[in-house]
Design goal:
Elements lengths: L12 H17 L25 H25 L24 H18 L6 H23 L3 H28 L8 H14 L6 H13 L17 H25 L3 H24 L1 H26 L11 H4 L1 E4 L1 H5 L7 H6 L8 H7 L1 H7 L2 E4 L3 H9 L3 H7 L11 H11 L5 H7 L1 H4 L1
Parallel strand pairs: 1-2
Helix pairs in contact: 1-2, 1-14, 2-14, 4-5, 5-10, 8-9, 8-10, 9-10, 10-16, 17-18
Organism: Ophiocordyceps unilateralis (Zombie-ant fungus)
GO biological process, one term: lipid metabolic process
Keywords: Membrane, Transmembrane, Transmembrane helix
Amino acid sequence: MESQIFLDDALTVADKLVLKSLVEDIKEVGPLQDADDGTDRDSGIEVQSYTDGSDADLNGDEARRWNKTAQDIAMLKAMGDVQSDQFQPTVLLSVDDCSRHVPSAVSKYMLQPYIGLARKVARHQTDVVMITHLLLYLCTTVPSAFLLYRRFSLLHGLVHGTMQVYYMGTYTLMMHQHIHQRGILTKRLAVMDRLFPYLLDPLMGHTWNSYYYHHVKHHHVENNGPEDLSTTIRYQRDSIRDFARYVGRFFFLVWLDLPLYFVQTKRPGVAMQAGGWEILTYVFYLTMAAHSAKATFFVYMVPLFLMRLCLMVGNWGQHAFVDSEEPDSDFRSSITLIDVASNRFCFNDGYHTSHHLNPLRHWRHHPISFLEQKQTYAKEGALVFHDIDFLMVTFSLLRKDYERLARCMVPMGDQVGLSVQGRIALLKRLTTRFSEEEIRDKFRQKMT
């Protein structure tokens, strides 16, 4: 056997259930022998068949698998249901159940009162973790930035920059929830909910409201199609040169391209808002630089440069594999990752296909939706990977390390019959640049 599914102990409870469910589906197929035409049909997954080949055993095992999937779905739903005895809010991203990791006295007199209060403050009672992170940023990032402007030191600047690099990914995906759900705080705190991004966004590398206008008002409208400013289809996705062009265009021209896009799509009001907030943020940077250029570099410029780079690195990985047969399908133009970095620390960002299928879906519902629709994912030829995040998907492509990507694949449906070399061939086909003629042909309706 050529590879095996790696079940990381650090995966979330939901991810473990999803990955185990997919492994059970692969086991159902069992070790496949070489086909008569000489094609290697070995799935490359170290699993044993549960069946002896009889129809009775197959049907019984299939029923058992789907019953287990239904139980997993019910359990995950119960964990998010405030009326259920199994309700479990997310308090910290690093662990699933905080109360099991602290002394009972600490849980009773500190943790549980905090959870009770935070549940009243959060938009969704499951999202205590977002209150936790807001407090974390307000108690670390904000005072650190303030002190840098009061008395700058290079060491403090380096420590602050390092801290922000650690925070930026989680904060961005928290704000991803914010812009899609129109907030993360209870509606009674709507004013605070609207205002805190103006303080924290620039500290985390975002210009004011740019994430909302680019991601919600633009990216999810165009959906990686030809008019999407961050589309990948015009680029060879394993080419360093094409990637540099892709990043450079966004890095230097998004401030102009995005308002022009809204003008071209007959939304001049949105164009003025998007461009206005971008320019206003630059004015703010200049104002702060006049007070202390050194502090501004570490507090605002370093996060800005890194964030814009990481956004493009991430988006490249999210939409690197596009099927030329049906490039406007969410199943065939985005991928799903089951990994620690994306899902434990970034609010299930790995379920990118699920997010495109329903941008308003709450982050904790993605694994549930995946399990409910996994037959459709398999039928549609969706790609699922494990033990790799979006940044490493991009880096693996730029190194043309298709073998690593193939071994990280969790095959579904017809993919189970592919060897590692077969998966490599599939992935290479899906990263091929679209010609303008192909784009006009495949996206004819969108472009008319």
